[in-house]
Structure formats: structure tokens, C-alpha cells
Specification:
The complex is a heterodimer of chains A (about 240) and B (about 70). Chain A contains nine helices and eight strands. Chain A is an alpha/beta fold. The longest helix of chain A is centred in the last third of the chain and has 20 residues. Chain B is built from one helix and five strands, in the order ββαβββ. In chain B, β3 and β4 form a beta hairpin. The mean pLDDT of chain B is about 95. The chains are: A alpha/beta (about 240), B mainly beta (about 70).
């Protein structure tokens, strides 16, 4: 398999060209770690598409992508995998196809199911889970399940020009705090704009990659981030 | 006492971005929300001096109270 070949090449001091611009920052050992990693991306809409794109280009070797929806025209404004040519087609299958064109070494497993239908066993095999869902109740349910499997979760959410990202370690109550009083968000009024989606998703991917590389630890866990691209504000939040 | 209140995203609409409020001693976060006509279910993150705080948290002079709405889109 290409992924195994690349892992062996890196061990022998050979850098595949696809990762030439990664190595200066993450090193050959880091690239091997990423290629051997397994993550889950739950929700393959706006956030999930950009998260998968970044993970594939970083060379994260095993990605489980979960979404039971199909693309429609309202997705074109922000979902990177959605084009005028794949309207009506499965988000999971289309994301798998797209990622295959970005990096053939990535083993992208497409699950065309709702998040709740993904087995605990499959969730538990992941080293990091990305919460890219669009429903608050589904997000809280996912956090509870992921936490019970002792897997860290990276939460991202967007509305209009705003977004937020939070690293949730197993057992932490951050998600319950964030959504304690609210069962719907301001995106219902504002919609979601692609700059906020891309920013939030790429911060999520950066956090995830650093968790996989071991460069983020419990001691230096980053605070939650809230940004407003219209007001030019970046707020860090201690939960 | 004086407390600085900062509003984010849609909570600013028809209100303000940042304002000093004169409040009676012992005021909690709920009192500020009431004065600003913000319902509790609009508030995702109530922060006092950058730290998440429950709505019954009692403010003191010089505090900064930041209020964020819920964001949940994907």
C-alpha cells in the first residue's frame, strides 16, 4: 500500500515529494506519525469538507468520514467538496472521491450513515474525533459517546462571519457549558459563510495534527477560541 | 459599581459593542441580561474577565462581563 511505502521511505530518510513542504515543520518522524494515525470526521458539510482536505494534505493516513446527507445547491456557498457536478450525490462518497484525488496514500473510509449509527468500536479506534456536525443536540450526544471511549474531540461551529473552536479532552464539561442554555444557534438567522467555515476548520485541523504529533499536552491545552471576521476579533475563553 | 459589558455577534444588534454600566453592589449576571433585554437562552458563553461563569455569579467593581451567543452551524 502507498501509505506503508511512504512510512518506510520516511524511516529510510527519503521524503516523498507530496510532503516536501511539510517536513521543515513536522519532520520525518512527525510525518510518519501522521501517516500512521487514524481520525474520525463526523459531519462532511462545511467544516468536515475543509477538515478532511487539510488532514489529507497534512498526510493523516486514516480518516473515517461520516455523513448520511447528499449535496444540494444550498451547500455550494461553503462546502469545498460540493460542486455543480455532484448535486444529489452522497457527501461521504464524494468526499472519499475528492480525498482520493488529493492524496492517494490516505485510507478514507466513507460511512454514509448518521453519526449515531457509527459503532462505539469504530469511534474508539480513532485517536481524535472532529465534531463537524450542524445540530446542537447531535453535538452533545457525540461528545458523550466520544468521551466514554476516552478519545479527545475537537469541536468547531460557525455562523455568519463568526466561529468557535474548542479542544475537549475526555471527561471535560466544555460542551455542556457551551450549550447549557441553547438548543439552537445564530446560524439559523445568519447562515454560514465560507471564510468562517474555512478558518474554523483549519484551526480544528491544526489542533488535531498537533494532538497526533504529541505537541499539545494536557498541561498546555489551548483555550477555546471565538472569532468574528467582520469585527476582526479573536477571543480566547477559559471554560 | 462600574462593570464593562462586551457583546458579541448578533447580541450587538440594536445594543452596543462595549459599554460601562453602573450597577448596584451585589449584582449578578442575570441582572445585566435583564437590563439589556437579553434572554438567557440567547447566551452561550457568559464570561467574567475571560472566564466562563454561571449566571448567578456576583460581579464586583471593575469586572469585564462578555456575552457570546450560541454558534452551532457546520
Amino acid at each position: 500500500m502507498l501509505r506503508d511505502e511512504q512510512i518506510n521511505q520516511l524511516a529510510d530518510g527519503i521524503v516523498p515529494d507530496a510532503y516536501a513542504r511539510n517536513i521543515g515543520t513536522i519532520g520525518r518522524g512527525g510525518q510518519r506519525k501522521l501517516l500512521a494515525s487514524r481520525v474520525g470526521v463526523i459531519g462532511l458539510g462545511g467544516l468536515g469538507g475543509y477538515v478532511c482536505e487539510a488532514l489529507a494534505r497534512l498526510g493523516v493516513g486514516n480518516i473515517i468520514g461520516v455523513d448520511d446527507d447528499v449535496f444540494d445547491e444550498t451547500n455550494l456557498n461553503r462546502q469545498i467538496v460540493c460542486t455543480t457536478e455532484n448535486i444529489g450525490q452522497s457527501k461521504a462518497e464524494q468526499t472519499q472521491f475528492h480525498i482520493g484525488r488529493v492524496n492517494q496514500a490516505v485510507n478514507f473510509q466513507a460511512y454514509d450513515v448518521k453519526a449515531e449509527a457509527l459503532s462505539d468500536e469504530t469511534l474508539g479506534e480513532c485517536e481524535v474525533i472532529f465534531d463537524c456536525l450542524d445540530s446542537i443536540s447531535a453535538r452533545l450526544e457525540l461528545m458523550a459517546r466520544v468521551s466514554s471511549k476516552n478519545v479527545p474531540l475537537i469541536h468547531g461551529a460557525v455562523a455568519g462571519w463568526c466561529g468557535q473552536v474548542c479542544l475537549c479532552q475526555p471527561g471535560c464539561d466544555s460542551m455542556e457549558k457551551i450549550y447549557a442554555r441553547c438548543d439552537h444557534g445564530i446560524e439559523e438567522t445568519l447562515g454560514t459563510l465560507v471564510p468562517a467555515v474555512a478558518v474554523a476548520a483549519n484551526i480544528m485541523a491544526a489542533l488535531g495534527a498537533q494532538l497526533l504529533l504529541g505537541t499539545i499536552t494536557d498541561k498546555d491545552r489551548p483555550p477555546m477560541l471565538f472569532f468574528d471576521l467582520q469585527a476582526g476579533q479573536w477571543e480566547t475563553i477559559s471554560l | 459599581m462600574q462593570v464593562e459589558v462586551r457583546l458579541f455577534a448578533t447580541l450587538r444588534l440594536g445594543r452596543f459593542k462595549k459599554r460601562q454600566m453602573d450597577l448596584p453592589e451585589g449584582s449578578d449576571l442575570r441582572l445585566v441580561l435583564k437590563r439589556l433585554d437579553i434572554s438567557e437562552d440567547e447566551v452561550s458563553l457568559p464570561l467574567v474577565n475571560g472566564r466562563y461563569s454561571p449566571l448567578e455569579h456576583v460581579l464586583v467593581d471593575g469586572d469585564v462581563f462578555s456575552i457570546f451567543p450560541a454558534v452551532g452551524g457546520g
